[in-house]
Amino acid sequence: MTLPKGYVKPNKEEAEQKAKLEAEQKAKLEAEQKAKLEAEQKAKLEAEQKAKLEAEQKAKLEAEQKAKLEAEQKAKLEAEQKAKLEAEQKAKLEAEQKAKLEAEQKAKLEAEQKAKLEAEQKAKLEAEQKAKLEAEQKAKLEAEQKAKLEAEQKAKLEAEQKAIPQNSQNDSLITNNLNSNRLDGKQGNVDKTLENNFNYFLIWEQLQEAYLHTMKEATSSYFRLLDFWLQQKNQEE
Predict the structure, then answer these.
(1) Residue 151 structural domain
(2) Fewer CB atoms inside 10 A, N or C side of the chain?
(3) pLDDT tens, 197-231?
(4) Compositionally biased, Polar residues: which spans (predicted)?
């Protein structure tokens, strides 16, 4: 077989080396591309994981902050409500205690005023009754004394007036009896003769009559005086 002109017979060894070199370069390139691809994928994966982790951490942090804020707000609201409730209860309790104290003080004051008024009224009534009783006793005593004195004076006067005529008629008889008794030595009968010349029973009846009449007039005067005194007392009050 005739070879073309200018054909150079290839060098087998060189061809093998060249093929080997090309294969190595190709393998190297593929390896580099593969490594690059893997590195990119790895970097991408790591970035995604990092981003995911950061997002999770961020979400977690935000959730924690949100939960913390809500807890604080809730705690603050509960504290405010509790403080408000305690303040209302305290104000209510103080108001009740104040009202109770005022009611007790008012009741005590009213009781004291009532007791004072009752005591004053009782003392006034007792004083009036005492004064009335004393006035009645005094007026009654004065009326009795006056009546008794007037009755005695009136009875004595009437007895004296009635005894004068009888005594004048019996003067001569008394004188004769006295002289006769002296002459007869009967001096002890003189007093008896004088006693017989006075009607003591009549005198006593006259005394009683005058006393009763005077007592009636004195009693009437006493009640008129007492009524006048009570009217004056009521007008002064």
Answers:
(1) 144-236
(2) N
(3) 445 566 666 677 777 777 777 777 777 777 777 77
(4) 164-180
